[in-house]
Design a protein that fits this description.
Length: 164
């Protein structure tokens, strides 16, 4: 089931396949151990598990598939806006404007939404009740995160000179 699925497989789905008496966690651990030293791994992502190629092989796969560095097709500014949404969600376009010092276009928001990386959150309690934006499960999968708690620590990013 993990091999055939392009998205994370939920615990409930695995439990239906292996049966009520089996421990899904133990089976996944056994599978992960059996893949040790191979090109694939079982990773906990979003609300389930996914079988994926180990990160060490990513450059070779990108080169073979002629993907370059644009896996998600995001430019630097789009990536920065996506990161701001991830760290400050739910956030409005005005909130993004405060961070970047300029308006964030609806087109940019539309591109991130079209790739399934962000979605609309709760309406803001501000005047006019503007939309807020949040990251999606697709975001977690694209970046190999189990949850938003796995985002790099902002203080560590600042120490590394990657954030200000």
């Amino acid at each position: 089931m993990l091999f055939a699925s392009a998205s994370p497989v939920l615990r409930e789905d695995l439990a239906r396949v292996v049966g009520q008496g089996a421990s899904v966690d133990l089976l996944v651990e056994d599978l992960a151990a059996s893949l040790e030293g191979r090109a694939f791994e079982v990773a906990r992502v979003a609300d389930g598990w996914i079988l994926r190629t180990r990160a060490v092989y990513a450059p070779a796969i990108r080169a073979a598939a002629d993907l370059g560095d644009q896996e998600l097709g995001l430019g630097d500014f789009e990536t920065a806006v996506l990161a701001a949404i991830a760290y400050h969600q739910p956030i409005t376009r005005d909130g993004l404007k405060d961070i970047f010092g300029k308006d964030i276009s609806r087109d940019l928001i539309g591109r991130l939404s079209g790739r399934g990386l962000i979605g609309t959150g709760p309406r803001s309690p501000q005047r006019g009740a503007p939309y807020t934006y949040v990251t999606t499960k697709r975001f977690l999968v694209a970046f190999g995160l189990e949850s938003l708690r796995d985002l790099p620590d902002r203080e560590g990013l600042e120490d590394a000179g990657l954030a200000g």
